[in-house]
Amino acid sequence: MQGIPTQIFKQIQEAIRLPEGTFIFRYQSQDLFDTAKPGGIILEIPSGQHLFRLERDDALLLHFYHSSPGTGTRVASIDLKALPVAPRVLIGFTWAAKEITLNIGPMVANGKLVSAIGVPSSKQFRVGTDGSVFQIGDQNVEVTGFTYYQGGRAIIQPTALEAWKETVQAIDILTTGQSTEGYIYEVVVANLILVVLVTGFEAYTKRRFLELEQGGVSPNTNELIERFYPKSEREAGIVAALEEEAKTAGVSVLQHIVNRGAINFQNFNKAKDAYNKAYGIKFGELGISSQKIETLHSFFRYRHKIIQKSLSENCTRQH
Question: Whole-model pTM?
């Protein structure tokens, strides 16, 4: 949206960085309902890893796109041809983990508020680490595993959710084969699946751990440091050192801790403790049964045996 002072725009960015909220504004334009005018972007606000984009296309459809690492890109659309023409309208949108909505009300006599609920978008939007906005894919164009580098540095990488979906997709592909001799194929496939699952778990929990902060959830880094750094280092001033190093590197303290490898996300208990200390998230309270958690623990044990022994050995066999 043009004409917004820089300071006000920054305040808006900060306000809408929360995981859920509502944004309402008045919009005045002679072109909004004009079929002779081409479509275009009305509002685009990147905020952390969130993106809010409002645009009108050439068919007079008003689209509100919301993108975040945890939800992907969703779109809510309203056909402006079904509304009375008005030079001024009231526009509002809401966003949350479960759904997004778009609302528009022509500011004329008998003007009514019209609403639409969002659906998954065929085109995905992502915000790069440099604040740039990228469109990935489009209708009938699917893109997976997208990574963009600039100056040798990754600006866009798959989100935790995207990386996990690709892991599951790879497992599905592996399971389509058959053994040509005995059951060796099945053993190799089972072992590969366990290795891929644990590696995928590590990738997901590590990326999601960082995405929560980028999505507006403030981590408790003091609790995290107390859990993952020994007392001797804490007494020697590791907190101040980490803060200074993070500032020099241009990243958050949480990002710096993860980049230093202080948390082993391939260790279930350490990943669990990290989420609990940083965000107060308890794996045991996420609706997962204790039996499934124990099964996940066994996957980690089997994965260790597989790496230490052989992909073709039945490491899950009880001895």
Answer: 0.61
